[in-house]
Amino acid sequence: MKKQNYSKEDLLTRWEIRREVQNIMGKYSQSYCIKQEGALGQFWSRRDDICLGLNNGWYVGQEAVLGYYAAIDAETALASRLIAARFPEKLAGKTEEELFGVGQISYRPIDTQVVEVADDLQSAKGLWVVRGLVEWVTTAGPVSFWDFSYWAVDFILEDGAWKILHMLDLHEIDKRQGLGLTDAEPALPEDPAFAEMASVTYPAPTVPCVLRETYRADRAFTPSPRLPEPYRTLDETFSYGMEGGAWNG
Hints:
alpha+beta, Nuclear Transport Factor 2, Chain: A, 4 helices, 8 strands, eight-stranded mixed sheet
């Protein structure tokens, strides 16, 4: 597209939209950090065709997307209860609310944002890189992992507020800390106090498929998701949704 000659008023409006969508993703990241993943649904559109793409497939529609976040919330609650039981001398007297998320970290900060706002000001697109770490409670107890991911998002203006319509959350590196990126991950000895973590399950994706394989030495070259480009309307550009094909460049 040719460079647009925007008025000062138009430039201010577009800057405000960029700030708004960047703030949405900052709040999204913060929700992970404080172990409030169950609240992530607030950032999404109410449309029936929303979709969330993970490495192993697509969660399509309100029930599927919100069900995925609810599963994270349930895992956090179980892990919190087991941590509290394992370390009563440190956590005695804490309420259930105070204990929620104890011993767990989902630090997923974002950077290198690229944001484009549609000419009609009704949608926007953004791509971010996550460089984080997580502390999952496993059957071996708390274990730390590196988490390098891509967040690619289509936003729409809905009833005067900006909301997520499509999102890709694709892990590039999901590796236990203390190991090289190409090292095998030997099994850790299980702790009977955390045996119940084996019962954790997540709802299967609505559309199971491989959107991205995490890094390994023999993985074929896998480009990052396609960068946002200047565009006029959401119907005239590529999508980060299920039909968009934008997850590999």
